[in-house]
Design brief:
The chain is of the alpha/beta class. The protein is 48% helix and 12% strand. Helix 5 (137-149) links the parallel strand 4 (124-126) and strand 5 (152-154).
């Protein structure tokens, strides 16, 4: 393991420093909290998210849960694709991969693959629910083989952040008509995202000798519909360049050996360090 880490660090140290780059991804399409969200509200979420992305010239990648796609939510998928964004597979029912057999995992991927057919274009991307890719080397390799056989490329993240936790409280505050509390939660959310970005930048610099091309994890939810533009403006103001997932995945980080096996969902930076 140490030899892998040393070789990887030498590769990174030999690469030139680069500008801060980040790809934007959104999980749980069509939209989060469907039981509390009407189709009309779901369309407003996607329109507001699309507007924020457009204002910063961003082509995002969104990962859809197959069993959430139906006649009511298909217009949301249409709106995301028609805005030029890329759709990805986020499983059929959002299970923890560690609880599945290989056959069940293949079925989760395959069913959503068929559900996404109307919006498929270009490279097919997959993201593991909870970022959990397998508890053992055997289960990790099994998942890799299933994805490869079905034509998918895994898309990890570098900036993991639990941003979804803020959304639940934010929606609760809005439902109660408490605008002051909603704004307080939104402010805390934005500060949290800045802190998590700084943390993973520092981890990358300390462990790998340079910053990487980052992939940010977000969700298609109400707090992002209302405040994604604020977050993207912060990245913009602080010198970040927005790139696509395809561009981000060219970074050597994403082809380096994944040294982590276990139940946790981790950033790709942590995975290659075996943390």
């Amino acid at each position: 393991m140490l030899s892998h880490i040393w070789t990887f660090c030498l590769i990174f140290l030999a690469l030139p420093l680069q500008a801060q780059q980040i790809a934007i991804t959104l999980d749980d399409l069509p939209y989060v909290l469907r039981s509390r969200t009407t189709p009309q509200e779901g369309m407003k979420i996607i329109r507001d998210v699309n507007a924020a992305l457009k204002s910063h010239d961003i082509i995002a990648t969104g990962f859809a849960i197959g069993n959430q796609i139906n006649e009511e939510t298909a217009p949301v998928m249409d709106a995301f694709a028609n805005a030029g964004h890329t759709g990805g597979n986020h499983s059929w029912s959002h299970p923890d991969y560690g609880t599945l057999t290989r056959w069940a995992f293949r079925r989760e991927v395959g069913r959503t693959d068929r559900a996404l057919k109307p919006w498929r274009q270009g490279q097919q991307y997959y993201r593991f629910p909870f970022l959990r890719e397998g508890k053992t080397e055997k289960t990790k390799r099994a998942a890799e083989n299933v994805l490869k056989n079905q034509g998918y490329e895994n898309v990890p993240v570098t900036i993991d952040n639990d941003e979804w936790r803020f959304n639940s409280d934010y929606v609760d505050a809005l439902d109660m008509g408490d605008q002051r509390e909603a704004q307080h939660i939104a402010t805390a959310y934005l500060e949290h995202m800045k802190e998590r970005t700084a943390y993973f930048q520092a981890l990358s610099q300390k462990a790998l000798g340079r910053d990487v091309s980052h992939i940010l994890l977000l969700h298609m939810n109400k707090i992002n519909a209302d405040h994604l533009d604020d977050l993207l403006a912060w990245y913009d103001t602080n010198g970040w360049t927005f790139i696509t997932v395809e561009q981000a995945l060219r970074d050597p980080l994403f082809t380096a050996p994944d040294l982590y096996t276990g139940p946790r969902g981790l950033s790709q930076i942590e995975r290659v360090l075996g943390e």
